[in-house]
Design a protein that fits this description.
homodimer, alpha+beta, Arc Repressor Mutant, subunit A, two-stranded antiparallel sheet, 40% helix
Protein backbone atom coordinates (compact mmCIF):
# COMPACT_ATOMS: atom_id res chain seq x y z
CA UNK A 1 0.00 0.00 0.00
CA UNK A 2 1.22 3.46 -0.92
CA UNK A 3 0.56 6.26 1.47
CA UNK A 4 2.01 9.50 2.67
CA UNK A 5 4.06 9.14 5.84
CA UNK A 6 2.92 11.09 8.91
CA UNK A 7 6.47 11.24 10.24
CA UNK A 8 7.01 14.94 9.53
CA UNK A 9 3.81 16.06 11.24
CA UNK A 10 4.18 17.91 14.52
CA UNK A 11 1.41 16.00 16.27
CA UNK A 12 1.72 13.15 18.76
CA UNK A 13 -1.35 11.41 17.31
CA UNK A 14 0.12 11.49 13.79
CA UNK A 15 3.50 10.29 15.05
CA UNK A 16 1.82 7.35 16.79
CA UNK A 17 -0.23 6.48 13.72
CA UNK A 18 2.86 6.69 11.55
CA UNK A 19 4.14 3.69 13.56
CA UNK A 20 0.99 1.64 14.05
CA UNK A 21 -1.61 3.13 11.71
CA UNK A 22 -1.32 0.61 8.90
CA UNK A 23 -4.09 -1.92 8.38
CA UNK A 24 -3.47 -4.96 10.68
CA UNK A 25 -0.71 -3.40 12.80
CA UNK A 26 -2.83 -2.70 15.87
CA UNK A 27 -4.36 -6.18 15.72
CA UNK A 28 -0.84 -7.63 15.59
CA UNK A 29 -0.05 -5.71 18.80
CA UNK A 30 -3.32 -7.01 20.26
CA UNK A 31 -2.14 -10.57 19.58
CA UNK A 32 1.11 -9.85 21.41
CA UNK A 33 -0.93 -8.83 24.47
CA UNK A 34 -2.82 -12.14 24.11
CA UNK A 35 0.57 -13.85 24.35
CA UNK A 36 1.69 -14.31 20.73
CA UNK A 37 5.44 -14.20 20.14
CA UNK A 38 6.22 -16.46 17.20
CA UNK A 39 5.23 -15.85 13.62
CA UNK A 40 2.79 -18.77 13.54
CA UNK A 41 1.20 -17.62 16.81
CA UNK A 42 0.40 -14.26 15.23
CA UNK A 43 -0.94 -16.09 12.18
CA UNK A 44 -3.13 -18.33 14.32
CA UNK A 45 -4.73 -15.30 15.98
CA UNK A 46 -5.15 -13.49 12.65
CA UNK A 47 -6.02 -16.22 10.15
CA UNK A 48 -6.99 -13.74 7.44
CA UNK A 49 -3.69 -11.88 7.25
CA UNK A 50 -1.47 -12.68 4.25
CA UNK A 51 1.91 -14.05 5.44
CA UNK A 52 3.88 -11.43 3.48
CA UNK A 53 1.75 -8.67 5.04
CA UNK A 54 2.42 -10.08 8.50
CA UNK A 55 6.16 -10.19 7.74
CA UNK A 56 6.15 -6.56 6.56
CA UNK A 57 4.09 -5.33 9.50
CA UNK A 58 6.26 -7.12 12.07
CA UNK A 59 9.39 -5.62 10.53
CA UNK A 60 7.79 -2.17 10.60
CA UNK A 61 6.80 -2.61 14.26
CA UNK A 62 10.36 -3.65 15.11
CA UNK A 63 11.67 -0.53 13.34
CA UNK A 64 9.10 1.50 15.30
CA UNK A 65 10.45 0.09 18.60
CA UNK A 66 7.15 -1.63 19.44
CA UNK A 67 8.67 -5.12 19.21
CA UNK A 68 12.13 -6.49 19.82
CA UNK A 69 13.14 -9.40 17.64
CA UNK A 70 14.89 -12.29 19.41
CA UNK A 71 16.42 -15.27 17.67
CA UNK A 72 15.20 -18.43 19.40
CA UNK A 73 16.53 -21.03 16.96
CA UNK A 74 19.69 -21.05 14.86
CA UNK A 75 19.00 -23.85 12.38
CA UNK A 76 16.70 -22.87 10.92
CA UNK A 77 16.97 -19.22 11.99
CA UNK A 78 13.74 -18.38 13.78
CA UNK A 79 12.71 -15.23 15.60
CA UNK A 80 10.17 -14.21 18.15
CA UNK A 81 8.69 -10.79 18.64
CA UNK A 82 8.51 -9.43 22.16
CA UNK A 83 6.83 -6.17 23.20
CA UNK A 84 9.29 -3.46 24.24
CA UNK A 85 8.44 -0.96 26.97
CA UNK A 86 7.12 1.28 24.19
CA UNK A 87 4.95 -1.61 22.97
CA UNK A 88 3.65 -2.35 26.46
CA UNK A 89 2.77 1.33 26.83
CA UNK A 90 0.33 0.85 23.95
CA UNK A 91 -2.06 -0.97 26.31
CA UNK A 92 -4.26 2.10 27.07
CA UNK A 93 -4.72 2.71 23.34
CA UNK A 94 -5.86 -0.87 22.81
CA UNK A 95 -8.32 -0.62 25.68
CA UNK A 96 -9.65 2.75 24.56
CA UNK A 97 -10.41 1.16 21.20
CA UNK A 98 -11.99 -1.83 22.96
CA UNK A 99 -14.21 0.41 25.10
CA UNK A 100 -15.35 2.35 22.04
CA UNK A 101 -16.03 -0.84 20.07
CA UNK A 102 -17.89 -2.53 22.94
CA UNK A 103 -20.07 0.53 23.36
CA UNK A 104 -20.89 1.38 19.76
CA UNK A 105 -20.40 -1.64 17.54
CA UNK A 106 -21.44 -4.59 19.68
CA UNK A 107 -25.23 -4.44 20.08
CA UNK A 108 -25.34 -7.62 22.20
CA UNK A 109 -23.15 -6.29 24.99
CA UNK A 110 -19.44 -6.29 25.72
CA UNK A 111 -17.26 -8.72 23.79
CA UNK A 112 -14.37 -8.57 26.22
CA UNK A 113 -13.86 -6.84 29.50
CA UNK A 114 -11.26 -6.69 32.26
CA UNK A 115 -11.48 -8.34 35.65
CA UNK A 116 -9.38 -7.25 38.60
CA UNK A 117 -7.21 -10.20 39.65
CA UNK A 118 -7.50 -9.42 43.35
CA UNK A 119 -11.10 -8.31 43.77
CA UNK A 120 -12.54 -10.37 40.85
CA UNK A 121 -14.61 -7.30 40.00
CA UNK A 122 -15.12 -6.17 36.46
CA UNK A 123 -13.22 -3.00 35.63
CA UNK A 124 -14.93 0.14 34.37
CA UNK A 125 -12.07 1.69 32.39
CA UNK A 126 -12.04 5.36 31.54
CA UNK A 127 -9.66 8.20 30.78
CA UNK A 128 -8.83 10.12 33.94
CA UNK A 129 -6.70 13.06 35.00
CA UNK A 130 -4.21 12.20 37.73
CA UNK A 131 -4.31 15.81 38.96
CA UNK A 132 -8.06 16.01 39.61
CA UNK A 133 -8.61 12.27 40.08
CA UNK A 134 -11.69 12.64 37.87
CA UNK A 135 -12.75 11.70 34.39
CA UNK A 136 -11.04 13.72 31.70
CA UNK A 137 -13.99 15.24 29.88
CA UNK A 138 -13.35 17.30 26.75
CA UNK A 139 -15.62 20.06 28.04
CA UNK A 140 -13.36 20.67 31.07
CA UNK A 141 -10.06 20.98 29.20
CA UNK A 142 -8.41 22.84 26.38
CA UNK A 143 -5.44 21.81 24.30
CA UNK A 144 -2.27 23.76 24.90
CA UNK A 145 1.01 23.66 23.01
CA UNK A 146 3.87 21.79 24.67
CA UNK A 147 7.59 22.57 24.39
CA UNK A 148 7.87 20.50 21.18
CA UNK A 149 5.08 22.30 19.31
CA UNK A 150 5.94 24.47 16.31
CA UNK A 151 4.48 27.86 15.42
CA UNK A 152 1.97 26.46 12.95
CA UNK A 153 0.51 24.21 15.63
CA UNK A 154 0.44 27.07 18.14
CA UNK A 155 -1.56 29.18 15.68
CA UNK A 156 -3.95 26.30 15.06
CA UNK A 157 -4.56 25.77 18.76
CA UNK A 158 -5.21 29.46 19.33
CA UNK A 159 -7.53 29.79 16.35
CA UNK A 160 -9.79 26.82 16.88
CA UNK A 161 -11.88 25.12 19.53
CA UNK A 162 -9.00 22.86 20.31
CA UNK A 163 -9.75 19.16 20.70
CA UNK A 164 -12.82 19.98 22.73
CA UNK A 165 -16.04 18.19 21.93
CA UNK B 1 -6.64 0.53 -1.12
CA UNK B 2 -7.70 -3.08 -0.97
CA UNK B 3 -7.87 -4.74 2.40
CA UNK B 4 -9.74 -7.37 4.27
CA UNK B 5 -12.60 -5.96 6.37
CA UNK B 6 -12.47 -6.57 10.13
CA UNK B 7 -16.24 -6.39 10.37
CA UNK B 8 -16.77 -10.12 10.96
CA UNK B 9 -14.25 -10.34 13.79
CA UNK B 10 -15.64 -10.84 17.27
CA UNK B 11 -13.36 -8.28 18.89
CA UNK B 12 -14.20 -4.71 19.94
CA UNK B 13 -10.75 -3.48 18.86
CA UNK B 14 -11.19 -4.94 15.38
CA UNK B 15 -14.72 -3.55 15.10
CA UNK B 16 -13.42 -0.09 16.01
CA UNK B 17 -10.55 -0.32 13.54
CA UNK B 18 -12.91 -1.49 10.83
CA UNK B 19 -14.55 1.97 11.15
CA UNK B 20 -11.54 4.22 11.69
CA UNK B 21 -8.47 2.10 10.88
CA UNK B 22 -7.82 3.39 7.39
CA UNK B 23 -4.89 5.70 6.76
CA UNK B 24 -5.96 9.34 7.49
CA UNK B 25 -9.30 8.51 9.17
CA UNK B 26 -8.15 9.13 12.74
CA UNK B 27 -6.45 12.38 11.73
CA UNK B 28 -9.70 13.48 10.10
CA UNK B 29 -11.46 12.85 13.43
CA UNK B 30 -8.68 14.80 15.16
CA UNK B 31 -9.41 17.76 12.88
CA UNK B 32 -13.07 17.60 13.87
CA UNK B 33 -12.04 17.92 17.52
CA UNK B 34 -9.94 20.95 16.49
CA UNK B 35 -13.16 22.43 15.13
CA UNK B 36 -13.20 21.44 11.45
CA UNK B 37 -16.64 20.92 9.93
CA UNK B 38 -16.43 21.85 6.27
CA UNK B 39 -14.50 20.01 3.59
CA UNK B 40 -11.98 22.82 3.13
CA UNK B 41 -11.44 23.08 6.89
CA UNK B 42 -10.43 19.41 6.97
CA UNK B 43 -8.18 20.06 3.96
CA UNK B 44 -6.56 23.02 5.63
CA UNK B 45 -5.65 20.94 8.67
CA UNK B 46 -4.43 18.05 6.52
CA UNK B 47 -2.75 19.69 3.52
CA UNK B 48 -1.19 16.42 2.33
CA UNK B 49 -4.41 14.45 1.93
CA UNK B 50 -5.65 13.98 -1.63
CA UNK B 51 -9.15 15.49 -2.04
CA UNK B 52 -10.62 12.23 -3.35
CA UNK B 53 -9.18 10.36 -0.35
CA UNK B 54 -10.72 12.92 2.00
CA UNK B 55 -14.07 12.53 0.25
CA UNK B 56 -13.94 8.74 0.56
CA UNK B 57 -12.86 8.80 4.19
CA UNK B 58 -15.56 11.30 5.19
CA UNK B 59 -18.19 9.16 3.52
CA UNK B 60 -16.88 6.08 5.30
CA UNK B 61 -16.93 7.91 8.65
CA UNK B 62 -20.52 9.01 8.03
CA UNK B 63 -21.44 5.37 7.26
CA UNK B 64 -19.65 4.37 10.47
CA UNK B 65 -21.78 6.83 12.50
CA UNK B 66 -18.75 8.92 13.51
CA UNK B 67 -19.97 11.98 11.58
CA UNK B 68 -23.37 13.28 10.66
CA UNK B 69 -23.58 15.12 7.35
CA UNK B 70 -25.59 18.35 7.35
CA UNK B 71 -26.39 20.39 4.29
CA UNK B 72 -25.50 24.01 4.97
CA UNK B 73 -25.97 25.43 1.49
CA UNK B 74 -28.43 24.51 -1.25
CA UNK B 75 -26.94 26.25 -4.28
CA UNK B 76 -24.36 24.90 -4.61
CA UNK B 77 -25.12 21.90 -2.37
CA UNK B 78 -22.56 21.95 0.43
CA UNK B 79 -22.27 19.78 3.50
CA UNK B 80 -20.61 19.93 6.84
CA UNK B 81 -19.51 17.00 8.96
CA UNK B 82 -20.41 17.07 12.63
CA UNK B 83 -19.26 14.54 15.22
CA UNK B 84 -22.05 12.29 16.47
CA UNK B 85 -22.14 11.03 20.07
CA UNK B 86 -20.23 8.00 18.80
CA UNK B 87 -17.63 10.32 17.26
CA UNK B 88 -17.35 12.40 20.43
CA UNK B 89 -16.80 9.18 22.38
CA UNK B 90 -13.63 8.67 20.34
CA UNK B 91 -11.89 11.38 22.40
CA UNK B 92 -10.17 8.95 24.83
CA UNK B 93 -8.73 7.00 21.90
CA UNK B 94 -7.28 10.19 20.42
CA UNK B 95 -5.75 11.15 23.74
CA UNK B 96 -4.35 7.69 24.36
CA UNK B 97 -2.59 7.97 21.01
CA UNK B 98 -1.40 11.47 21.90
CA UNK B 99 0.00 10.31 25.25
CA UNK B 100 1.84 7.45 23.57
CA UNK B 101 3.24 9.69 20.84
CA UNK B 102 4.29 12.44 23.26
CA UNK B 103 6.11 9.88 25.39
CA UNK B 104 7.84 7.81 22.75
CA UNK B 105 8.17 9.75 19.51
CA UNK B 106 8.72 13.34 20.61
CA UNK B 107 12.25 13.55 22.08
CA UNK B 108 11.93 17.29 22.80
CA UNK B 109 8.97 16.99 25.16
CA UNK B 110 5.21 17.05 24.76
CA UNK B 111 3.81 18.45 21.54
CA UNK B 112 0.33 19.09 22.94
CA UNK B 113 -1.17 18.65 26.35
CA UNK B 114 -4.43 19.40 28.12
CA UNK B 115 -5.08 22.21 30.55
CA UNK B 116 -7.97 22.18 32.99
CA UNK B 117 -10.20 25.17 32.22
CA UNK B 118 -10.99 25.84 35.88
CA UNK B 119 -7.71 25.16 37.66
CA UNK B 120 -5.41 26.08 34.70
CA UNK B 121 -3.35 23.04 35.66
CA UNK B 122 -1.93 20.71 33.09
CA UNK B 123 -3.70 17.35 33.01
CA UNK B 124 -1.88 14.06 33.53
CA UNK B 125 -4.16 11.76 31.57
CA UNK B 126 -4.14 8.01 32.18
CA UNK B 127 -6.38 4.97 31.90
CA UNK B 128 -8.16 4.35 35.20
CA UNK B 129 -10.65 1.88 36.63
CA UNK B 130 -13.77 3.54 38.03
CA UNK B 131 -14.21 0.68 40.51
CA UNK B 132 -10.81 0.96 42.20
CA UNK B 133 -10.20 4.61 41.36
CA UNK B 134 -6.66 3.61 40.41
CA UNK B 135 -4.62 3.26 37.26
CA UNK B 136 -5.62 0.28 35.16
CA UNK B 137 -2.35 -1.64 34.95
CA UNK B 138 -2.22 -4.75 32.77
CA UNK B 139 -0.54 -6.71 35.57
CA UNK B 140 -3.59 -6.28 37.86
CA UNK B 141 -6.25 -7.43 35.39
CA UNK B 142 -7.17 -10.30 33.13
CA UNK B 143 -9.36 -10.27 30.06
CA UNK B 144 -12.69 -12.03 30.43
CA UNK B 145 -15.29 -12.83 27.82
CA UNK B 146 -18.39 -10.65 27.78
CA UNK B 147 -21.92 -11.67 26.78
CA UNK B 148 -21.18 -10.97 23.11
CA UNK B 149 -18.07 -13.19 22.91
CA UNK B 150 -18.17 -16.35 20.80
CA UNK B 151 -16.71 -19.74 21.69
CA UNK B 152 -13.54 -19.22 19.71
CA UNK B 153 -12.75 -16.06 21.63
CA UNK B 154 -13.57 -17.77 24.95
CA UNK B 155 -11.06 -20.53 24.12
CA UNK B 156 -8.44 -17.96 23.15
CA UNK B 157 -8.86 -16.04 26.39
CA UNK B 158 -8.60 -19.22 28.46
CA UNK B 159 -5.57 -20.53 26.59
CA UNK B 160 -3.39 -17.46 26.57
CA UNK B 161 -2.07 -14.76 28.86
CA UNK B 162 -4.90 -12.54 27.92
CA UNK B 163 -4.09 -8.91 27.11
CA UNK B 164 -1.75 -8.76 30.07
CA UNK B 165 1.63 -7.18 29.54
Amino acid sequence: MQHKSFKGMICPIALSLDRVGEWWSILIIREAFYGAKKFDEFQKGLPDIAPNTLTRRLKRLVDADVFERHRYSDRPARYEYVLTQCGRDFYPVLWSLAIWGNKHFSPNGDIISLENLKTKKKAVPFLADKVTGKELLPSDYKVVAGPAADNELRRKIVNRDALAG
